[in-house]
Amino acid sequence: MRVLTGARLVLPGGVTPGRIEVAGDRLAHVVPEDPGVPDTTEGDGETFDLGGAYVLPGFVDLHCHGGGGAAFTVGDEAEARTVAAFHLAHGTTTMLASLVTAPVETLVAHASVLGGLAAEGVVAGVHFEGPFLSAARCGAQDPAHLRAPDPDAFARMVDAAAGHARMMTFAPELPGATDLVARAVAAGVVAAVGHTDATYDETRAAIDAGASVATHLFNGMRPVHHREPGPVLACLAAPDVTCELINDGVHLAGATVAYVAATSRAALVTDAMGAAGMGDGTYQLGSMRITVAGDTATLAGTDTIAGSTLTMAAAVRRAVRDVGLDWPAVSVAASLMPARALGLADELGSLEKGKRADLVVLDPDDLEIRGVMRAGRWVSR
To answer: Which positions are annotated as active-site residues?
Structure first.
């Protein structure tokens, strides 16, 4: 038994002083401080006094390409492990490994590597962000390798991940996209809407076919117009669609983040590339050359935003300090909502008895990481 005392527990109903008891890889007790609640602490357990630090459930990142100078998009096992370790140290205890548009043969090869790591539990699965995306809204996706939805290519990519393909992003307006969305859902793959120039009705058709995530809402999408609301309002109007938000102060205004968070369907994501945690310079995102200056990554020689250098810990700090969200809303967006999107909310995403002991400890003053626990084991403290 490990006992964490002196904690500020971030629970769905608010923040409360309390303690957490961990047995093996599970949360054995989550106990708000209350004189009427008996102390079940076992005498031979380890006790950690957190000194008033905030304790949140481990962060769940649906969308990440890299970090720590490494990338998922090169198909190298060692680099993929580096990415996962970097983000774990920043509080991400569950993450998808996101690929970018590339030739199908390349995606198949990379999915095979990442599927093996998912089988080990290093990542939670593979996210294919491409190649079935819109050329008009491709952003940092390589337009040379975009293609129309293709059932055979889809099957090869999913098969290569060996049961660990967890999400695929589609542009609903492409011929055959709605049918492939339905096929993805039937195969247990979360279908997402993104990098799209679709109309409202085209997006609604994809949602009706089973699409349940909006890939970085607003970014890489036809903007809202009062006579053509497009994919943004279609996703916001659908109660079962989880809306990814890149809360780095570059992709979205704080007021936009706050508006979507008020729907309780926001999921903070990093969309990070290898430059996360590194300095300014030139990097690769798949086949595309990226320039990083300050907090902004752009396609080399352009002003097109290309992923981010964000961590989930930084996104959470910004949500509290700059956007002004309350702690329960931030925790839902950083953990519970993305866990629900992946069908993992019974196991992850909130501080509840019986769930996996994935925890993030934040300093009460500067909100920096003071500790990360995954499956009952301290990985950073």
So the answer is: 271
